[in-house]
């Protein structure tokens, strides 16, 4: 590139001498002028190419710098305590077992408590509006008329909203034990291992830890805010549908049979939703444990490999990086001479 620029500059100097020579013909001077003008884009293209190459060369310098950073990280990884890492893997294995057991137990307890809660609330409404006779063990009416329907609708809607609020508390309480297990993961130990890596890897690992940690906190502390299947509806909106279906099923009123069926639908919705929530949260918790264990296992694999590296191998890698830097600097000087 520089050789071409020198040639173009030599041609330009030759043209300048020709144009200054009063003994040269007008025609040849016109040709020299045209040539000088037409050469300018060529010279400009060489300089612009050099500028583009200069930017690309910065990436090459970063590559060698990263290689040197990785080279410097090897002794840190090799000299770390493998015993501490194995201890963390053992604790994570125990945590995995406890989370699976707590998940099953928590799901069962949540379903039982939520079912009982809705049964008590729906039975209370049913007995109140359809006039349950305790002595005769029968309902004294089997239909709520048109004029009372709106009042039942209002009360049922309020009961469902109240029910939804209490469901949130039940689910949060049952998920708390799993969340507590996840909180027992020693972040400081993970951070200690992360600090042994090169800067690029450190940044990637920390982003992963922050992302997973944020998702865990959100989905375990506010389980009903993040419903499964990417549902856009809130819990109260989800439970509102069977209530509205019941009210609008007949213009004349609400039958006892339809009321019972609506209550069954609400109970079924909650059963399915709780199962989905627990399955998703347990899956997230187990994936977190598995990813952490995988991180530690890969750390140990690198450690074993780095411990086997010889001084000659380390020295050869260092020489290679220094050679690359030297050659890149030479190219850089060459480019600067073209730009200058």
Structural commentary:
This protein is mostly helical and 340 residues long. It is 84% helix and 2% strand. The strands form two sheets. A two-stranded antiparallel ribbon has the order 1-2. Strand 1 and strand 2 form a beta hairpin. The longest helix is centred in the first third of the chain and has 53 residues. The chain is elongated, with a radius of gyration of 38 Å. The two termini are 13 Å apart.
Describe the secondary-structure layout.
Layout: H1 2-20, H2 26-78, H3 82-129, E1 132-133, E2 138-139, E3 143-144, H4 146-183, H5 187-194, H6 199-221, H7 235-248, E4 254-255, H8 256-307, H9 311-339
Antiparallel strand pairs: 1-2, 3-4
Helix pairs in contact: 1-2, 2-8, 2-9, 3-4, 3-8, 4-6, 4-7, 4-8, 6-8, 7-8
Number of helices: 9
What is the makeup of the main sheet?
A: 2 strands, antiparallel
Structural class: mainly alpha
- Low-pLDDT sequence parts: none
Helix-strand topology string? HHHEEEHHHHEHH
Overall strand count: 4
Classify the beta-strand content into a percent band. Answer: under 5%
Share of helical residues: over 70%
Shape descriptor: elongated
Give a concise summary:
The chain has 340 residues and is mainly α.
List the main descriptive attributes of the protein structure presented here.
two-stranded antiparallel ribbon; 4 strands; 9 helices; mainly alpha
């Amino acid at each position: 590139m520089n050789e071409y620029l020198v040639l173009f500059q030599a041609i330009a100097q030759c043209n300048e001498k020709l144009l200054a020579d009063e003994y040269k013909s007008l025609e040849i001077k016109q040709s020299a002028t045209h040539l000088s003008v037409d050469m300018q884009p060529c010279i400009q293209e060489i300089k612009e190419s050099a500028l583009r190459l200069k930017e690309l060369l910065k990436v090459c310098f970063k590559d060698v710098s990263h290689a040197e950073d990785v080279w410097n990280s090897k002794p840190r990884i090799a000299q770390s305590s493998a015993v501490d890492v194995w201890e963390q893997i053992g604790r994570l294995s125990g945590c995995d077992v406890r989370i699976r057991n707590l998940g099953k137990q928590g799901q069962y307890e949540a379903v039982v408590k939520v079912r009982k809660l809705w049964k008590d609330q729906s039975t209370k409404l049913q007995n109140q509006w359809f006039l349950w006779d305790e002595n005769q063990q029968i309902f004294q009416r089997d239909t709520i008329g048109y004029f009372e329907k709106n009042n039942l609708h209002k009360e049922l809607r309020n009961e469902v909203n109240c029910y939804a609020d209490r469901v949130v508390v039940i689910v949060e309480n049952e998920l708390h034990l799993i969340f507590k297990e996840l909180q027992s993961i020693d972040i400081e130990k993970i951070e200690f291992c992360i600090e042994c890596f090169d800067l690029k890897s450190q940044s990637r690992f920390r982003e992963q830890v922050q992302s997973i940690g944020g998702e865990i906190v959100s989905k375990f502390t506010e389980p009903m805010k993040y419903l499964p299947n990417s549902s856009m509806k809130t819990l109260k909106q989800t439970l509102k549908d069977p209530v509205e279906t019941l009210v609008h099923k007949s213009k004349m009123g609400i039958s006892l049979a339809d009321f019972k069926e609506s209550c069954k639908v609400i109970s079924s919705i909650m059963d399915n939703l709780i199962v989905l929530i627990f399955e998703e949260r347990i899956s997230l918790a187990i994936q977190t444990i598995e990813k952490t264990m995988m991180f530690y296992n890969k750390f140990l694999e690198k450690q074993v490999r780095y411990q086997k590296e010889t001084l000659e191998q380390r020295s050869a890698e260092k020489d290679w990086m220094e050679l690359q830097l030297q050659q890149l600097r030479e190219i850089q000087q060459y480019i600067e001479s073209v730009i200058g």
